[in-house]
Amino acid sequence: MEVNRDEAERCIDIATAALSNEQPEKAQRFLEKAQRLFPTEKAKVLLEMIAKNGFTPRGGHSDFNGQSGPRQRQPNSDDTRPEAKPSEKSYTADQLDSVRRIKQCKDFYQILGVQADASEDELKRSYRKLALKFHPDKNHAPGATEAFKAIGNAYAVLSNASKRLQYDQCGEEKTNPSSSGPENENFEADISPEDLFNMFFGGGYPSSSASMYANGRMRNQRRDRRERPREGGFALFVQVMPILILVIVSALSQIMVNSPPYSLSYRPSAGYTQKRLTMSLKVPYYVGEHFSREITGLNLKNLERTVEDDFISNLRNNCWKEKQQKEGMLYRARYFGDNDLYQKAQRARTPSCAKLSEITASLHG
Questions:
Q1: Are 44 and 110 part of one and the same domain?
Q2: In 10 A of CB 125, how many CB atoms?
Q3: Mean pLDDT lowest for which of 230-234, 268-272, 285-289?
Q4: pLDDT in tens, 69-87
Q5: Among 65, 37, 158, which residue's Cα sits nearest to residue 105?
């Protein structure tokens, strides 16, 4: 079907022009033809907007190159699956085929649709596209939840440098990425698919019916609570005892370990009441009352270097989070055609990134 891509794109362009000229019937014909030639998200979005909004795309289709407005399922004439029961959520034949494709993949690279030498940016772009497509609140085809988990697991492993190296070294011994078991646990994600999705898209889809992911399986929290048998006081004590032990051990370790000589807090705190600035980068930090007498000379210089290193490390982490949040908001705005969210994302500030750039410039200046 790759040979039909150009013709499908031409049909989409004609349909877009027809929508601008208030010719919805013509637009719909060319969009359906484009989907038959080479199915694309762009044509699907426009068809769904036409079906939902009575041939008038909400908020216009030109702001985001035809990708505006929330998308709903458009019935497909080629859908050969049995008619769903009224209580079941519908899905398209394309969604079902996509789920089957994911299940048939032999490794994580195939799942994400990238080459073995794909860069970090390529992994991110592929994950964003697939995560939105297979999210259980959007894709209701059988097996979509497992496919969504496989996509999240694939990205979590390949985006981790050490795990990716270990995975690549397995060669032919790689296990089926959709399977689970002791032989595959080295390549399990350290984060649940839903948490990974929320990290990228700043909240993403709402978690319906209080569902949650645990060890890769979706479990219903309310049902677990209803089915949990009542237990006696001793059983409750046995369950709570490990937590109590952890609290006690943590408290003892805090007593035995000496407190650090400084704090990077933005305001005075217990034991750190005296504000100071490092000599080189003027980084503010707080120390105790006897700091000036206890730490001087070379020790002070080394400590301030540590303060600045910690401060820059914190800035890098905060900058990364700010960029991820802003990038996720922009992507969601373009994908769902939310102009308000797009403007909000454009105005979003990244103070940690600005401060990091300022410090970097001063170090190289």
A1: no
A2: 15
A3: 230-234
A4: 444 444 444 444 444 444 4
A5: 158
Indicate whether 279 and 355 sit together in one domain: yes
- Residue 207 counted as domain residue: no
Amino acid identity, residue 355? K
pLDDT value, residue 171: 56
Beta carbons within 8 Å of 40's beta carbon, 6+ residues apart: 8, 9, 12, 34
Q: Which of 123, 107, 111 is nearest to 147 (CA)?
A: 111
User: What are residue 309's phi and psi, to 5 degrees?
Assistant: -65, -45
What is the C-alpha to C-alpha distance for residues 360 and 356, in angstroms, rounded to an integer?
Answer: 6
Q: Which residues contact 101 (CB under 8 A, 6 or more apart)?
A: none
Q: Quick check: is 153 in a domain?
A: yes
CA dihedral 31, 88, 200, 221 (to 10 degrees): 170
Classify burial at 348, counting beta carbons within 10 Å of its beta carbon; exposed 0-12, middle 13-18, buried 19 or more.
Answer: middle
Interatomic CA distance for residues 107 and 186, integer angstroms: 14
Our separate counts of H helices and E strands in the chain read 15, 5
How far is it, in rounded angstroms, from Cα 4 to Cα 73? 23
Domain span at residue 106 reads 92-167
According to DSSP, the residues that pair with 277 across neighbouring strands are 284
What does the pLDDT read at residue 187? 61
| Per-residue pLDDT reduced to its tens digit, 36-55 | 888 887 888 888 878 776 55
Handedness of CA 266, 271, 273, 276 (dihedral sign): negative
Q: Are residues 101 and 39 in the same domain?
A: no
286: helix, coil or strand? strand
Asked whether residue 108 is assigned to any structural domain, the reply reads yes
pTM over 0.70: no
CA-CA distance, 35 to 18, in Å (whole number)?
17
Residue 238 lies in a domain: no
Pair 281, 352 in one domain? yes
How many structural domains does the chain have?
Answer: 3
